Amino acid sequence: MAVTIRDVARASGVHVSTVSRTFSAPHLVNAETRNRVLAVAEQLGYRPNRAARGLTTGRTHNLGLIVADIANPFFPPLIKAAQAHARARDYHVFVADTDEDPRVEEELIQAFTKQVDGVLLCAPRLGDRALARLRRQVPFVLVNRRLDGLPAVLMDVGRGARLAVEHLAGLGHRRLALLSGPEGSWNSRRIGEAAADAAAAAGAELTVIGPNSPTEQGGQIAAPEVARAAATGVLAYNDLVAIGLVEGLAELGVRVPDDVSVVGVDDIMQARLNRPKLTTVAMPTVAAGRTAVDMLLQLVGTDEPGPAALTVLETTLVVRESTAAAPVAERPARLSPGEVT
Fold first, then answer.
1. In terms of domains, do 324 and 190 share one?
2. Looking at the structure, do residues 150 and 194 belong to the same domain, yes or no?
3. Residue 277 half-sphere exposure, CB side, CA atoms within 13 Å?
4. How many domains is the chain built from?
5. Nearest to 292, CA basis, from 311, 318, 266
6. Closest C-alpha to 280, from 295, 265, 294, 293
């Protein structure tokens, strides 16, 4: 015989309504009780009837997850974490890719409106006005984008950019370049602002090169401009751009890190496999996926949402083989004993 909701309630020692809320509105159930009910349901093999529950609650128990480019290795760990976290809460996730096109992004949000309870927007390219308008159609949480009034999960890329510039300056690099990301990227703006501040504080010159495609090809195309800028230290928008830059510089006879040090952002798997292994800013993608799901479920589970939530996750600098001391001619002169600045 099929396991019923009454069986789960009896085995859990709770009322039937508590089991129902555990699956339909988990945020309303005490965490300890919720976890006990879910464990018993899993042990008994109980599966709630989605169709019946949807008629009762008016919810689909589906979420949408929209990313800028599913081929970018940055996104799969986030997608996998979000899907697993949602599935543990009895939600399914539909994933869609915009190919960096804001028009496609808007079409996908509108298409999801009646199919999901809420949407996770990862690194959206839409403008502020469009996002503010679309939020009235479906609840959503932003990932790596800040907009007043909207809940968001941010990976502190500004801190990461400062750490990267300070690392390069600490190695003696005084002529730096920043390979920015695609036009309209909120992340690219944050990296640029933080890198400029850190360079100024370190007494280094920063040349901004871009916008660039957030791909390996984008880095290869930018290599000649980096060489013309005579930069000895480079911070790239992401790891793909950094890896492409290393390849492009090699074709020009410029060695990394002997002639030019390169830092990426993301810490994708290729950063560890590339030669030289890439120094990069590690982004907490798994934590971001899980946190964004929790935030979205809390949002769709209430009729009167409070102030928009904001979570900022810490980034770290991972030093590998693509950065080294600046060429001798680039390093600041050491003061002789007794000299003063």
1. yes
2. no
3. 8
4. 3
5. 311
6. 265
pTM: 0.79
State the pLDDT confidence band at 46, using cuts at 50, 70 and 90. confident
Domain identity same for 65 and 170: no
CATH number for the domain harbouring residue 183: 3.40.50.2300
Q: Give me 77's structure tokens.
A: 């760990």
* Distance from the Cα of residue 188 to its chain's centroid: 12
> What is the span of the domain harbouring residue 71?
57-155+285-314
Condensed to tens digits (0 to 9), the pLDDT of residues 72-90 reads: 999 999 999 999 999 988 8
Q: Are 119 and 297 in contact (CB under 8 A)?
A: no
CB-based contacts of 218: which residues, under 8 Å, 6+ apart? 179, 212, 240, 241, 244
The answer to whether residues 302 and 27 touch, using CB atoms and an 8 Å cutoff, is yes
In whole angstroms, what is the distance from residue 274 CA to residue 285 CA? 20
Residues 197 and 322 in one domain: yes
Report the distance separating Cα 315 and Cα 79, nearest Å: 19
Q: What pLDDT, in 10s, does the model give residues 211-269?
A: 999 999 999 999 999 999 999 999 999 999 999 999 999 999 999 999 999 999 999 99
